[in-house]
TrEMBL record:
This is FtsH ternary system domain-containing protein. Residues 1-260 form the FtsH ternary system domain.
Length: 263
């Protein structure tokens, strides 16, 4: 057996791997969608003059109506009803509003590729006389295998290090543009808010119109009740002055007044 000999093998591998980093920003936009429905009609469209006078007389003493700036006003769900004695106009206004919110996001991206080269060496041992079957060829294969193993480890370490440095540097640069991302997120949120408002507007307009019709029906019912109350007050005043045995009763919304006239 001869002294052992060594075989050195050097291997080189190129590194080329892509990297990518990003920063994100979010912004919230808030607003509301509003709709108004109104109608104005003359009270004479509903009441003849005697009934109008009875209505106005009863309105003056009704706790449901408040005189403000020359008009009688009554609050209703989502709006108000106003009556102007000087013009005889009855106005009904309904307003609906819905609060809305939208979130927008923006993302700034940086990407690239790290390129480098790593080198590793492997050593194999053999005997000139081929002792133990370990020939120079066998030793060379051992050296190549060892070099390749070291090369893989070095390449992984080098790639990870280069990628980390590149990503850290890019992220630092992206942070300098954070205001840009914030503005983009804000614009995105406002755009979404506008779209959401447009989608809601039509439905809200329909709801406002439907509620106006409902309030109109309830208001007219209340007006006719005031007319009845006005007539009732006038008749009771007349009976108190000119009659006797006054009896007043009400059932199912019908007011019955009985009295005897003095002769």
């Amino acid at each position: 057996m001869c002294n052992p000999r060594r075989v050195r093998v050097q291997a080189t591998r190129k590194i080329a791997e892509a990297w990518r980093t990003e920063i994100k920003q979010a912004a919230t936009a808030r607003g509301d969608v509003s709709s108004e429905a109104r109608m104005t009609q003359l009270i004479s469209d509903y009441l003849p003059e005697p009934a109008r006078r009875a209505f106005e007389q009863a309105m003056r003493s009704s706790p449901d109506w408040e005189l403000t700036d020359g008009e009688y006003r009554r609050e209703v769900p989502g709006g108000h009803v106003a009556y102007r004695p000087d013009t005889g106009e009855l106005e009904i206004v309904v307003r609906l509003s819905v609060a809305i919110e939208a979130v927008g996001t923006a993302k700034l991206v940086a990407e690239g590729e790290v390129v480098d080269e790593v080198t590793a060496e492997g050593i194999g041992t053999y005997y000139a006389d081929g002792f133990g079957g370990i020939t120079e060829e066998h030793a060379k294969r051992q050296a190549e295998k060892a070099a390749d193993a070291k090369l893989t480890e070095l390449a992984e370490q080098r790639t990870a290090s280069l990628k980390q440095k590149a990503e850290d540097k890019a992220k630092h640069e992206l942070k300098k543009r954070q205001r840009e991302a914030t503005e983009q997120a804000k614009l995105s949120a406002e755009h979404k808010l506008t779209t959401q408002a447009q989608e809601l507007q039509t439905g809200l307009d329909v709801r406002a119109g439907e509620q106006l019709e409902q309030v109109q029906a309830e208001t007219l019912k209340g007006i006719f009740q005031l007319v009845a109350a006005g007539y009732s007050a006038a008749l009771q005043e007349y009976a108190a002055q000119y009659g006797q045995n006054l009896q007043v009763s009400e059932e199912d919304g019908v007011i019955a007044i009985e009295f005897e006239l003095e002769r």
